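Progress narrative, Year 2. Work on Dephospho-CoA kinase from Microbacterium alkaliflavum advanced from sequence curation to structure prediction during this period.
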Amino acid sequence: MPLIALTGGIASGKSTIAARLAARGAVVVDADAIVRDVQRPGSPVLADIAAEFGPHMINPDGSLDRARLGTRVFGDDDAVKRLNAIVHPAVRLESARRFAAALAADPHAVVVYDVPLLVEARVDDPWQLIVVAHAPADVREERLIGVRGMDETDAAARIASQVSDEARLAVADVVIDTSGSLDETLRQTDDLWERLPEHLAARAAR
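Result:
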């Protein structure tokens, strides 16, 4: 079972690539969805977040106030580390469970882990291939402003808070340039899928 990591900065088009790979037959495991799942109401992770950052991080219905927590930790490296120490181990366990379930269902499945924080948290895991969705920071900033409605300051801050493009590109086996049209991104993704055995063999040979 090939286990492929797909990463990229905010507004890099990573989700578009993941959706295309899923349409071609890959089993996509979404790290962001796992984060939401392990932080569900009543979960140990949510209890630990409340203990660390205060009960006001929990909404009246028992769910996590993501906006409040995001505001609390954004720009505070120590707070981010404390939050990651709570969340990352649970995400790692749940992702491993989902990888195993995919393998059990189909030993030949191609599993793609859609993971924004690969470089920060999971780069040393035993991936068979690392794929990076890449667009220059100025292009991604334009998308955050034009598509997601952020102002220029917020968009720049979100990009600056993430690991550098250079750090992501340094770990890439395959780079998909998403700075062009949607069709160009999909064409590169289809090419990745068609040439997957070649890419896997090249990585294994290193």
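The chain is about 60% helix and 10% strand. The mean pLDDT is 95.
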